[in-house]
Amino acid sequence: MDVMVEGPRAAQVASMLHEREIPYAIAMGDVDIMVEKEQGTVLNKLVKNSATVRPMDWHSYHRLDVIYTWMDNLQKEYPYLCSVMVIGKSAEDRDIKLLKISNGTKGNTGVWIDGTIHPREWITTAVVTYIANQIVRNFHEYSESVTSKDWYILPVLNPDGYEYTHTHDRMWRKNRAQYGECVGVDLNRNFSYGWGEKGEEGSSDDPGNIFFRGPKAFSEPETAAVKRTILHSGTNFKVFISFHSYGEVIIFPWGYTADPCPDYVELLEGGTAMAKAIFEASGHTYKVGSTKDLMYFSAGTSVDWSYGVANIPFSYMIELRGKEHRFLLPREDIIPTAREAMCGVLRLLDFVDKRCKGTQACVCPK
């Protein structure tokens, strides 16, 4: 368990743990230093002036307005490939914007990629936008395993929480829905498949808990928008990838039970193909396995729902870098992390299309 303590209280907490003979180690002596390293500058937690929109790049982390402007501009530059749609509104009435990349061929199978279901995981939005940018700007350089897909890309699934991490609380995990005196639902416990299973071990019914699952499945507008878009799109999705951080693991169903899913072996092989591609690209080792095997019980997750209800056969949750910096991954690590993740995604598509022969080199982005 990671516990963040205010500086003046650190000695008191350390004393309490010592008295109770609870072993502990200090992972980060000063979180502010890590935040500065992440951003390259001191993070102003009360920034409200966003009149000047910074250009999109992958050398720093960006606010929601920058990301949405980039999506709109991509549609203007590549109208024959890109379309941007608002698939719903957040709890605080922000747009939930999705980018679709398609050559327009009827019968294309679908690939879903999302980020920032947990808003403190900034690297996920950076990786998702990087992948989208590479695909669009180099579309005709990729193989048919890429160009024959309809790509549904949702960079910021939780826009309210994402903005809140930039302005108030960098470690915020939930959305911003109000439940009594408490705020927020863990959106990755709010999907219907396995919702509420395993009691407090899989999620929580306490609105004050960071794993609060909500009063019912799909109670939140953000998760309802994902459900509606996937089920009503008319697209035959073959791949579902939800990016998270941190941990460097590739996990697949189930999370709500320790039982193996019906396609365990095939999902393990697909995940291993991704892990091999990542290792070849960067030397980083990502573990592969089911959610419960590698992590813990997680009930009501998007990946269990995409596999169990939406019937998307290759459904994965990828926990990105990094173990050392936790959620505060330095901006210098954005592009290396994005590159290795994209190599993994491309290799998975080869695997899914039965074109990966095991010795084929990964077509990594330049």
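[next item in queue]
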Amino acid sequence: MVVHSSPLSFQVLFLVLTILLQIESHQIEDVAAKVEHLPGFDGPLPFHLETGYVGLGDTDDDLQVFYYFIKSENDPKNDPLMLWLTGGPGCSSFSGLAYQIGPIKFKIEEYNGSLPNLVLRPQSWTKVSSIIFADLPIGTGFSYAKNVTAHRSHSKLINHTHQFIRKGYLLGNPITTGKESNDQMQYAHGMALISDELYLSLQRNCKGEYIDIDAKNELCLRDMQYYQECLSGIDPSYILDSDCKVDFPMDDQGTHGRLLIQKLEGPLSSYLTVPTVTCQAYCSFLTTQWANSQSVRKALHVREEIGKWKRCYTTDFDFDITSSFEFHVNLSAKGYRSLIFSGDHDLVVPFLSTQAWIRALNYSIFDDWRPWLVNGQVAGFTRTYSNQMTFATVKGGGHTAAEYKPDECLAMFSRWLSNAPL
């Protein structure tokens, strides 16, 4: 594992972007098809799900964005409507639906070759908001275009998304400056993953630059090699998680890295390579098997011309925006509210990095650093600024905080929506 060159370190502008919309739900319903049953789920769906395509570009045939629209389970006529995008640099937002904040999730059980099972998630954010999970960028999930590679870039993704922006946004563990990897060493030292001596040597020999290292700087390269060896058994997305290793990337699941695997002989394939149940990538594997089932595609009203479902981009993405700092400056100046949250056990985008660029905005503090509570227990720490930006840590959360701390993140989201202090 090479932490400073992890593919997650170059995510799209908004790693986990949610944008509140001021459009009426009937605008979605006009082009959507209702889904009342899903293969793998026992019985009719106890929530309102619609799926469909929205055409973008000069003609409706240019770009076809697939989406899942789930009505609020509380008061859909008055609750806000939220757009969810997933980073990675671009992954299907089914990731957010099934892994983090949607009303269903995969049942974690040994895969036997049959269709994976779905169960309800009690902490769904649809308890307080309607949500559109959009497969953007084009080419992720069930979205498509006649020329997919022409649309794989940061700026094109933002232009497509900008059509929906109206009110405010949330970001979870976001890549913002492109320099977040430079803060990983300080975080690793603070979490006792590396020694005092190695940390001081890294500071002395690398002088704060751990991304673009001079090939002639042998002392820095030596320290970096030792650093990588120390962290080779750590999952950077959640430093408390099990380490999963294998000798090849699982591109079809959108998961790069080394994973523990097992070979399974089953009806869907003569041999399948399956991550072990304890690996985080296991849900990605289940999703790929589920989403490529013809019964699932029929239930979701997926168009026949769509090829194999892939969760994330692995190639052909133009990283033409290196920093989104100025975007935050502009949005704040226009009066957009924002909530920036960080799972504090994420090494990929340490909370230290997020705090640093927020400080650089140079806004005065409105509500100073304090714990925020769920059920009388500290769920994290928070601070609010005069530009209506709230920063919060999620205690014990990983790179995708809601995946690890669903109760706490639902409480955080609900309070922010109601404009109440966390």
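[queue empty]
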